């Protein structure tokens, strides 16, 4: 190929890479916009005065919701995501019960709300951790503390509940962990289901933007490879980067 043709290809590839970069940026913004819209709608419903019924432990959930001013649907959704309503569940990390509370968190929260006061002598143990009434009350109290800490942002509260407040502080928001993002989405979806409401149809658009972003990213890699190859040929032909 003539040198002029190679140069035209070089500049054409640069233009393609710029256009693909812009499209990729739009896809990234589209994902962020759709996800933020779902989160805003979810946050607005956190204190809705509703009750959950026909669920395991619904009486305990509604009582904890009234005490700590958190939507029963959100509490039930956290239980669904954490333990699938299994009161004896124990995680590999040592979290217990319906809301998967760790012993350290249990001690801190229990000192404040005295959930176990008068129930037994000595420290709490696994019998307390797996007691449905105690676990729901402690877990909801902790979730309410996080909700207050993040100024009414339940999405951040859920991120901290899953990944820890320190991790949220490090990243200044929801950490970029697939597990945490999936956890938040599971809780949000379940909360809509328990409220008998349809979730805003942003998930379909999010999936489309993600697919588009993946395709464009692949195209960018191919274009960058072709750009590198063309530049290498031109470099060898001109013995440097000064092309005429």
UniProtKB/TrEMBL annotation:
Annotated Transglycosylase SLT domain residues: 60-169
Q: Which domain of life does the protein's organism represent?
A: Bacteria
The keyword Membrane appears for this protein: yes
Membrane: present as a keyword of the record?
A: yes
Q: Which InterPro entries match?
A: Lysozyme-like_dom_sf, Transglycosylase_SLT_dom_1
Coiled coil regions, renumbered to chain = none
The membrane-spanning stretches of this chain are 12-31, 209-235
Q: What is this protein called?
A: Transglycosylase SLT domain-containing protein
Q: Top-down, what is the taxonomic lineage of the species of origin?
A: Bacteria, Bacillati, Bacillota, Negativicutes, Veillonellales
């Amino acid at each position: 190929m003539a040198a002029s043709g190679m140069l035209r290809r070089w500049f054409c590839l640069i233009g393609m890479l710029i256009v693909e970069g812009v499209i990729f940026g739009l896809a990234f913004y589209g994902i962020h916009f759709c996800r933020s819209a779902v989160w805003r709608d979810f946050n607005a419903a956190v204190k809705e005065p509703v009750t959950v019924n026909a669920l395991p432990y619904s009486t305990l959930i509604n009582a904890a919701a009234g005490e700590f001013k958190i939507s029963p649907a959100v509490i039930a959704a956290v239980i669904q995501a954490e333990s699938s309503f299994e009161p004896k569940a124990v995680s590999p990390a040592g979290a217990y019960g319906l809301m998967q509370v760790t012993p350290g968190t249990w001690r801190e929260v229990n000192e404040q709300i005295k959930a176990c006061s008068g129930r037994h002598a000595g420290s709490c143990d696994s019998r307390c951790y797996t007691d449905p009434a105690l676990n729901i009350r402690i877990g909801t109290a902790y979730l309410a503390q996080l909700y207050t800490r993040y100024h009414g942002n339940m999405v951040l509260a859920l991120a901290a509940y899953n990944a820890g407040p320190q991790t949220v502080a490090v990243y200044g928001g929801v950490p970029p962990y697939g597990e945490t993002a999936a956890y938040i989405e599971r809780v949000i979806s379940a909360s809509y289901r328990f409220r008998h409401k349809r979730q805003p149809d942003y998930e379909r658009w999010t999936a489309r933007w993600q697919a588009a972003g993946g395709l464009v990213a692949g195209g960018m890699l191919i274009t960058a490879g072709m750009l590198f190859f063309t530049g290498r040929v031109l470099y060898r032909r001109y013995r440097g980067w000064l092309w005429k």
